[in-house]
Amino acid sequence: AEQEAVLQYGEDFLQQFKAIQGEGKHGAMITSCICHGCPWQNFMLEGKSSYQHYAAWYYGKAQGAESTHMDARKPNGDGTMTFPQCLKFPGREDVDKTPLVV
């Protein structure tokens, strides 16, 4: 039940996020990490770190859809994240690839 609640939270967040997702003044890098305390400077998505994505948005090099980046893997990167605190989300092999955000 707890795992289902985490997944539902992600789905609910994404529905609410759609309202601002395409606006030019907003930017986001949404990760599948649910462990908290991960080193943001080491998160890589689409070949760039979270800080590089942030800088591109902040300095106007990325706008609109280009300024939103989402990790579409299951929680904690489908168990592929190598940070010590990021464990595989147990028992969720049957979950689709809907992005999860926390």
For this entry, give a set of tags:
single chain; 102 residues; alpha+beta; two-stranded parallel sheet; two-stranded antiparallel sheet; 3 helices; 10% strand
Structural summary, described in words:
The protein has 102 residues and is α+β, with helices and mostly antiparallel strands. It has helices at residues 2-21, 50-58, 75-78; strands at 28-30, 44-45, 48-49, 68-70. It has a two-stranded parallel ribbon. Strands 2-3 form a two-stranded antiparallel sheet. A hairpin with a 2-residue loop joins strand 2 and strand 3. Mean pLDDT is 80; it is low at 92-96.
How does the SSE layout of this entry go?
Layout: H1 2-21, E1 28-30, E2 44-45, E3 48-49, H2 50-58, E4 68-70, H3 75-78
Parallel strand pairs: 1-4
Antiparallel strand pairs: 2-3
Concise summary:
The chain has helices at about 1-20, 50-60, 75-80, and strands at about 30, 45, 50, 70. By secondary structure, the chain is an alpha+beta fold.
> How many E-type strands?
4
Mean pLDDT: 80
Give the strand order, joined by hyphens, for the main sheet: 1-4
| Low-confidence runs of at least 5 consecutive residues | 92-96
Instruction: Please trace the helix and strand order, writing H or E for each element.
Output: HEEEHEH
Inertia-based shape:
flat
Number of helical stretches of at least 4 residues: 3
Major beta sheet, specifics?
A: 2 strands, parallel
**In percent terms, what proportion of residues is strand?**
5-15%
Helix content: 25-40%
SSE-based structural type: alpha+beta
Rg (CA only): 14 Å
Distance between the termini: 17 Å
